[in-house]
Specification:
Blueprint lengths: L2 H4 L5 H11 L4 H8 L3 H8 L8 H10 L4 H15 L7 H6 L1 H12 L4 H15 L1
Helix pairs in contact: 3-4, 5-6
């Protein structure tokens, strides 16, 4: 994730408020498209309620026309707000033992940001 982009927002609620306003959508309009009440969405935006589940977050990304990078930031902020891993990652981690092994190895070796960024860049190069 682009840390600089994530750091532009105080929290998950701040992110979706700003994105909603950038798209010039009202609270009521977005709430209706999500199938929730406007007061509920307001509580989420004001950080009084936890972020939505993954299905609703995917819908929110579509409603707000988020780029892939913006969606990643939104998911990371949602996970952070819940004090959990971003909601799009647990199934991938649970379904692939090698991912858990890689994370534990990195943790045990105290892998730093530079090492992780190189790892990500190496993977992106393979995609080509």
């Amino acid at each position: 994730m682009n840390r600089n982009m994530r750091d532009n927002y105080l929290n998950f609620g701040d992110f979706i408020t700003k994105k909603r306003e950038e798209k010039q959508k009202t609270l009521r309009e977005v709430a209706k498209l999500l199938g929730i009440s406007a007061p509920y969405l307001s509580d989420v935006e004001k950080d009084r309620r936890n972020p939505f589940d993954l299905e609703k977050l995917d819908l929110l990304a579509d409603v707000l026309l988020l780029s892939e990078e913006e969606k990643r930031v939104m998911l990371d902020l949602a996970g952070r707000r819940r004090n959990e891993v971003a909601p799009d990652l647990p199934n991938y981690i649970m379904e692939n033992d090698y991912v858990s092994a890689a994370l534990r190895t990195a943790r045990d070796l105290d892998a730093g940001e530079e090492e992780w960024l190189k790892f990500v860049e190496d993977l992106k190069e393979r995609k080509g």
